[in-house]
């Protein structure tokens, strides 16, 4: 499915299953992937994205809580201010993704940096096929409130 440059701004994608979609340059600003009521224990995720191309997509302020992003390409994607709490990212390429200090993450920034550095190290040592590894080098964390930039990875 080709959704190049599609405008999903403000859309409710609760329960959506996007598979093999080309979302290059798509505007997913302020979409909603969650539900307004408590999530049952047997629900693993509310939005599943598999094998999607989200290169240069605009995901600023998107609610991706409890989303599964599997084997997706998010090169140079702007996820500043997105809610990534509980999000599972498996085998995805996040090269040069931009997140800001407003991005809601399950850990604090230093824990996140350590986790990504550890994942990078394990990916290099891993004997698994390349497509099963997450590439997270070059992620930029903009800590705007502290007026300095941090580059994570190599």
Automatic annotation (TrEMBL):
It holds the Pfam family Pentapeptide. Gene3D superfamilies: E3 ubiquitin-protein ligase SopA (2.160.20.80). This is Pentapeptide repeat-containing protein.
């Amino acid at each position: 499915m080709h959704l190049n440059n599609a405008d999903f701004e403000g859309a409710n994608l609760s329960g959506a299953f996007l598979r093999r979609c080309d979302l290059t340059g798509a505007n997913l600003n302020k979409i909603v992937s969650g539900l307004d009521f408590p999530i049952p224990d047997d629900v693993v995720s509310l939005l599943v994205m598999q094998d999607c191309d989200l290169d240069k997509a605009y995901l600023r302020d998107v609610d991706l809580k409890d989303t599964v992003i599997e084997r997706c390409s998010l090169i140079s994607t702007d996820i500043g201010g997105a809610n990534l709490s509980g999000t599972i990212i498996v085998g995805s390429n996040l090269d040069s993704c931009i997140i800001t200090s407003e991005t809601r993450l399950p850990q604090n920034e230093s824990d996140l940096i350590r986790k990504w550095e550890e994942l990078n190290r394990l990916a290099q040592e891993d004997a698994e096929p390349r497509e099963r590894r997450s590439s997270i080098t070059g992620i930029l964390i903009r800590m705007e409130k502290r007026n300095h930039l941090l580059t994570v990875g190599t």
